[in-house]
Structure formats: structure tokens, C-alpha cells
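Hi all, a correction to my earlier message: I attached the wrong file for Flagellar FliJ protein. Here's the right sequence:
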Amino acid sequence: MARFSFRLQPFLNLKEMMEKNIKNELGIAVQKYQQQLLVLSEIREEIDIQQQEFRKEGISLTTPLKLRQRMEYIKVVQNREKVQIERVNEEKRNVDKIRKRLMETMKEKKILEKLKERQLDEFKKEQEKKQQLLVDEIVSFKETVTPQNEA
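and the right structure:
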């Protein structure tokens, strides 16, 4: 019996390998994104703490110099927050870009898999036809041979 051979199997294998690599790349990008979100969260926490301290010092007897220094520090941390927000957005765009590539690769792989499945079905039908023809041929051969022997 003949074996099924999918002409595009090397291409399908390549797509599967690409999908696996992109999934790994996506995992790394998501980790980086999560790390940047964590850093942003820590910066925001620091801003909240410093603002609370500023309020406390404003109520208590403290020097205007200390209040001004704390306010300057808060501004510096807020600037770090802006920079960090941009990093987070950059990582988010990177994750989205990789996710889009993954979706495209998965679509292409799925198309190839469906094509392979259709060709396999056609191959099986063709093999059934051939086998049925062979059976019909054997039966007709037996029918032609048997009456001659009986006569």
C-alpha cells in the first residue's frame, strides 16, 4: 500500500518551529512587561509615601528648607514615573507586536494543517477506490475462471 506524503510538510514543520520560538519570545516579552509594571508600581508607591511624609512635615514644625527638599524629591520621583510609564508602554507595544506575529504564524500553520488533512482524506479515498477496484477485479477473475473449470 502506498504511503501518504504531504509535499508541504517541511514548510509545516518550519511553521511549527517558528510558532514555538515566537511563543518563547512572547513569554520573555511578557516577563519584561510585568517587570516594568512592577518597577512602575514601586515608583508610585514611593511617590505616595513621600507625599504622605510631606503632609506630615507640613503639619509639624519643620523648616521650609526640608519641605522644599521633599517637594524636589517628589518631583524627581514623578519624573522617574513618567520615564517608567514610557518603558511600560514600550514593553506593551513589544508584547502586542510579538502576539500579532504569533497569531499570523498560527493562522498560517492552521491553513497548512487543514490542507494536509484534506489531502490525507483525498489520499484515503483514492486508496479505497484502488482497493475496491482490486477486489472487483479479483472477484471478476474468479467468476471467469470458475465457470471454465466447471465446463
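Sorry for the mix-up. The two ends are 37 Å apart (CA to CA).
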